[in-house]
Amino acid sequence: MTEAIRGFWAAVPTPLTSDGTVNCASLAGHASHLFSQGIDGVVLFGTTGEGTSFNVAERIATIEALLKAGVPASRIGLAAGFPAITDAIALTRSALALGVNHVLVLPPYFDRRVTPDGIEDAFSGIIDGVADDRLRLTLYHIPQVSGVGIPVAVAASLRKRYGKLVAGLKDSSGDFRQFEAFRAAAPELAITVGNEADIARALAAGGAGTICGMANIAPDLVKAMLKGPGAEARMQAAIDIVLNTPSLVAALKAILAAQSGDAGWLRVRPPLRPSAEGAALKARLEQLTSPALA
Length: 294
Known about the structure:
Blueprint: E1 7-11, H1 24-36, E2 41-44, H2 56-68, E3 76-79, H3 85-97, E4 102-105, H4 116-130, E5 136-141, H5 143-146, H6 152-162, E6 166-171, H7 176-185, E7 190-193, H8 199-204, E8 209-212, H9 219-227, H10 232-243, H11 248-260, H12 278-289
Parallel strand pairs: 1-2, 1-8, 2-3, 3-4, 4-5, 5-6, 6-7, 7-8
């Protein structure tokens, strides 16, 4: 059992069949391809994976299919954030029963006026409700999307209260000062970053690695960031390619469709709409990731 998510992990999109269900065979194949590119693990059903569009049963069925296809449990992280902590508890218990112990949890979202004490109550309710020492929870901080962030003091308090059960924190705020605040308050947490442009300096400041979406479409560029400074400008330009679209998720999927030749990657769940820009986005990305520019 690994104690925390460290290294190079991909936040993977969720491929869909023509009837809108998870295409588990395609997802398993994508995971295997990422592993062949040197990626350490995959996180399912996070922001990049349209996680809020999938229920508990769908997420567990997907894990079961990936395990059956040979994807190791130790290389799977599962996003388990819900407005109802009972759903988070149920999903986490089921994941642990299958051998998946890396679970990423958002604070309950929707009510954006909650207090820090309330946020800590929610996380402690999940941990106490799961009541399993195998759990290695990663706190998931992405307030610009979820609307509810994780206060620094709450992260530090949860680590102090629960030790290795609260193994890490994913900071996807895109604000490096926030990363530094988490590191200062809770240095025992394995803190990964979601903003690829911050990878090199986060590692230099004691970060644990990255869980990121660009790993799916530009793994070599992410690896360049992991090796140290020097690729920040190219990485930011690559990020801007997908950010300057109506939907980052739809753009990532469109690029994957263009790269793989599998049009099934274009499918998204409502309220997202498919992107028709895949070929153009792929061409722009290739200009940045060409070996000649490395």
